[in-house]
Amino acid sequence: MTPAPAVPLADALAGGPLVLDGGLSNQLVAQGCDLSDALWSARLLADDPGQIRAAHAAYARAGAQVLITASYQATFEGFARRGVGREKAAALLRSSVTLAREAGGGEGAPPWVAASVGPYGAMLADGSEYRGRYGLGVAELERFHRPRVETLAEAAPDALALETVPDVDEAEALLRAVRPCGLPVWLSYSVAGERTRAGQPLRDAFALAAGNDQVIAVGVNCCEPADVDRAVELAAEATGKPVVVYPNSGEEWDARARAWRGSPTFAPDRVAGWRSAGARLIGGCCRVGPDLIADLARALRH
Prior knowledge:
The chain is an alpha/beta fold. The chain has one domain: TIM Barrel (Alpha-Beta Barrel), CATH 3.20.20.330. 42% of the residues lie in helices and 16% in strands. The strands form 3 sheets. The chain has an 8-stranded parallel sheet with strand order 1-12-9-8-5-4-3-2. Helix 9 links the parallel strand 4 and strand 5. Helix 4 runs parallel beside helix 6 and helix 4 packs parallel to helix 13. 55% of the residues are buried.
């Protein structure tokens, strides 16, 4: 297996901004993959892992220094619905880290690997990760997340990406679930304006991570690029920690037509403002592909 980077991710953040990858799903679609299954990209962990490795490699070639695994929608419950037993599901979760490591095995320093821990709503596959408020308490959400966190930690990623979190209750549950594993984590909310998707003030949501040494960065992802500007400031002010940002392209998904509408608003020239406000992990989410990540990497070098 390709070795992990010699420098811990938390230490690297002190040296300047790092480039995250872009949307894994859009790159898989560009490679000809069908993601219509409820498991989304996680299906390919079982059915065609080579495609996942190739997608990661495309981002590594584009200049991504941190690769996020294909485990966002990979859960024991989701795999069980496909008839995959618990032992096999655990192996597939661990393989998501291995595939990202292998994809970074080219020239130059190996990328850091962040194991994606998506929200409860991702398992439901009904869009509720953009609403939150599932009717579950913090303790119930912690019980859901803990087995997957423990399994991903066994694969020794450089960090856990607690991402696309829609509300503060789930953030609290995730931070409880990761505590025993000891791995560094980043906490990233899905937002609309200055509020979480569930409607809580973003400053309060970020403050949940203040003083938690396990959290190496806080921020936002899977949001409008314009929402990032204020979010970076709020995250830095509320926690004093490095900020992580990886917004969508700015296009909008038309669920009825099952198509993307509008024009992209993700532009590398936004990076200077994000960096000056405290962003240290910068990349893209849905519809942000390797070409845009390459542009972003060039912008961060200047």
